[in-house]
Amino acid sequence: MLGTFCVRVCSGFRATSCVRTLHSLPGITVAQIDEEVAKLLELKVRLGGDDGKHQFVLKTAKGTRDYNPKQMAIREKVFNTIISCFKRHGAETIDTPVFELKETLTGKYGEDSKLIYDLKDQGGELLSLRYDLTVPFARYLAMNKITNIKRYHIAKVYRRDNPAMTRGRYREFYQCDFDIAGQYDAMIPDAECLKIVHEILSELDLGDFRIKVNDRRILDGMFAVCGVPDDKFRTICSTVDKLDKMPWEEVKKEMVNEKGLSEEAADQIGEYVSMQGGMDLAERLLQDQKMSQSKLACAGLSDIKLLFSYLQLFQVTDKVVFDLSLARGLDYYTGIIYEAVLTQAGVAPVSNEAQNGTNAEESVNVGSVAGGGRYDGLVGMFDPKGRKVPCVGVSIGIERVFSIMEQKAEASAEKVRTTEVQVMVASAQKNLLEERLRLVTELWNAGIKAEVMYKMNPKLLSQLQYCEEAGIPLVAILGEQELKDGVVKLRVVATREEVGLLRSTQCMLGPSEDTRSI
Amino acid sequence: MLGTFCVRVCSGFRATSCVRTLHSLPGITVAQIDEEVAKLLELKVRLGGDDGKHQFVLKTAKGTRDYNPKQMAIREKVFNTIISCFKRHGAETIDTPVFELKETLTGKYGEDSKLIYDLKDQGGELLSLRYDLTVPFARYLAMNKITNIKRYHIAKVYRRDNPAMTRGRYREFYQCDFDIAGQYDAMIPDAECLKIVHEILSELDLGDFRIKVNDRRILDGMFAVCGVPDDKFRTICSTVDKLDKMPWEEVKKEMVNEKGLSEEAADQIGEYVSMQGGMDLAERLLQDQKMSQSKLACAGLSDIKLLFSYLQLFQVTDKVVFDLSLARGLDYYTGIIYEAVLTQAGVAPVSNEAQNGTNAEESVNVGSVAGGGRYDGLVGMFDPKGRKVPCVGVSIGIERVFSIMEQKAEASAEKVRTTEVQVMVASAQKNLLEERLRLVTELWNAGIKAEVMYKMNPKLLSQLQYCEEAGIPLVAILGEQELKDGVVKLRVVATREEVGLLRSTQCMLGPSEDTRSI
Lengths: 518, 518
Hints:
Two copies of one chain form a homodimer.
Chain A: H1 2-9, H2 15-24, H3 30-46, H4 69-88, E1 92-93, E2 99-101, H5 102-105, E3 127-129, H6 134-143, E4 149-158, E5 172-181, H7 188-204, E6 209-215, H8 216-225, H9 233-240, H10 248-258, H11 263-273, E7 276-277, H12 279-287, H13 295-313, E8 320-323, E9 336-342, H14 360-363, E10 368-374, H15 378-382, E11 391-396, H16 398-411, E12 423-427, H17 433-445, E13 450-452, H18 460-470, E14 474-478, H19 480-485, E15 487-492, E16 498-502, H20 505-508, H21 513-516
Parallel strand pairs in A: 1-4, 6-8, 12-13, 12-14
Antiparallel strand pairs in A: 2-3, 4-5, 5-11, 6-9, 7-8, 9-10, 10-11, 14-15, 15-16
Helix pairs in contact in A: 2-3, 4-7, 4-16, 7-13, 8-13, 10-11, 12-13
GO molecular function, one term (chains A, B): identical protein binding
GO biological process, one term (chains A, B): histidyl-tRNA aminoacylation
Enzyme class (chains A, B): ligase
């Protein structure tokens, strides 16, 4: 019976060796049999009872993915570039929990609220996974009565959206936000956000880009003077938002046929939203007979003018364009809005199909890689007394950046290294494990990134092959002769050049007291 | 009616200014009234309807916390130390989603499974938040058929435990794992894990520490030769685990009175578990009349001997002790186990009360700051064919390290900086905003971390005060005279020393074409 049982458990566990040695041992004791039986019974329990079957579905949750070491190496590089920029601009960082009280998220995302992940009610508070980093930031400010902060936050957020993973849309994805909260003089922090986008996109070297700028107040003013009824502002705005994916004729058709706007109003809007320019355009529109009738629009236009004056000082006007067709989806924007798009062909544009408008922050634009704006009302929604903390911020579309960097790495001949090991400590002959461990310890203690194979007697060839695979540039080779001479042979893997290095006096003294006792 | 409504909405939103300007404007147009009404109605909707009340509970979920910028600065420092060590040892890193299929976690945590956070069933797969990083790691290896990897993973895990936040026990907390998977020669990777613990704890400078080592097989063998019935191995083991918090007499009482062990067996165990030593103890026990009867124990003891021989080569035996009372809680260990404890008094020992045994990984020991062991069976549990991937790993008790570092920072006179800004660009007189922005742009473009106040005309004193608060070491002061002379005055905040620096030719040329147009 023990035999049969063993056959069954041997498949998955360490039973094989125990059982084999048990049989081969002549002077077996009762205690030994007892302990072997105990081990086997325990294994049986772990195997899930007598039927011994454990069927796992080996997958990650829908819309999520693991990051393998290569993806992590790319991710780290991108994060380093972005974080360096945030730090250069004096930002602090904070972190918030992955879940919030459900009611904290309620009423912040409009229709998209249906995409929020709720936790199961297991007693206690009702919780939801965070949907973005902006609402937790506003909650943090209100809760801690913070009225001034410049912070970045890089973390994962969760949306039960229809995943399109091949196009970089996931249910778990990173957001990478920089925000300036506080009552300051107009447009200075707003301009710094654009400077930051400019710096990051230049440094990431993703190809040419353009930063489109508009203002919520200009949009609203424009709708008013064009005769859009008040209750149609939002829906017409979301149609305007499609101009980067559809020609004007189709957009107009949607406005008139689907949304019931008068053809005249649509045509007037069409005239404005085709306008692009810089400070000059803002000046022209301030003189525009119709536009100038809207106080809101004028306030927005004056701010655009001021913004451009700061952008000139920041030396970023080459990439920034005032574009009246920009209409970002999120409800909470109150002033300036902006969005950066890659303009170079061939950078894997997200197909139209992926743009269903539900994922406003990430997929607003075909080549959108950053976006943001001013939201002066959000923090006040959390404050019991409604105290406002004006905020302006930017979110880098980091998942899209990852995808592009991964594609670039794939296309490039250069291998992405997943470790930073500088030296492999190898041996040319057998029985040199101790010497290898001794040398690698010296290297580690000196702060050098080094590795050694976990084998008693690895072949030199397999040690060298490992270096080539892992991209380790140097091998320190130990052999009997080198040990006798007190040297180590250092080989450059790529060129096979070798130099003999004299080991330091400390090493020349031979085994320390510690090691002699082995 | 409009008036009454305005009073109500003014509390939380930007309505005040709109309404005020509306009244003061003489030549008001219909379009303007329309747009103002639209804005107000929209605000009303956002305020949640006519009653205008929005009551938020301003808190984070039970057992969780935000990290403020100071805590983040400490966290970053700790992570950098730890990650540098992992990289020095050639580790790659991976990441897995925060939630897994519920069934992936099922049957891995025994009684503690009740602490798993489940997500609400919103249609589709049943999901749970990860409980540790080890099970997702095993799932990742099995799913990708990886048989060799040395990886670290630093991420948050979730346990619906009874939180004790003042003692550093949270429902959302970091784990910081390093593991070596693969079929290698005995004890080499195991020894490297201990070397890593030694390096990290030394570098973090948390005070003196000790790394206790034992082996699951030695424990099981010991129980067998002491006459513990097979079905009592696990429960007696968990009583032994309490030896670091209770005297032997109480532990014995629990064994005999509560768990029904014979007094003779308990006394025999008592003799063994009081033993501590190094390689010599392992040698002695291999000769021990009783212990040597257990093949399992002998295998464990031989491996301890081999381990110590490698630890000597790694120069870490000063802190490592072979301790037969060490019995870590987790079920999945199959070989060597270890745990690092801080031995210095006054490092905020976690009180006994916090040790309810439910949080085995984090609170095993009073001063426990790291722990781990060998688990050769876990990956096989995920493989359809039960293929084993031997693993050994270590988890750094990072939350406890954070607490200690925060206490040290609190006690120290040195201020924790939350930004890395090197220079504040300030002005001595009014109307120099443009000049400040021009200079800060030069600094940013040169990669220098710099800030400027977001005010048109900040007082010099408030700019200097900001530097002192934020710990910014240098101020670049611009004044009319400096601009005329083509210099910038650089002041060391701490000493108030000042030097005049000639600005580079590029700057001497005066406003560029770009900026002249303002």
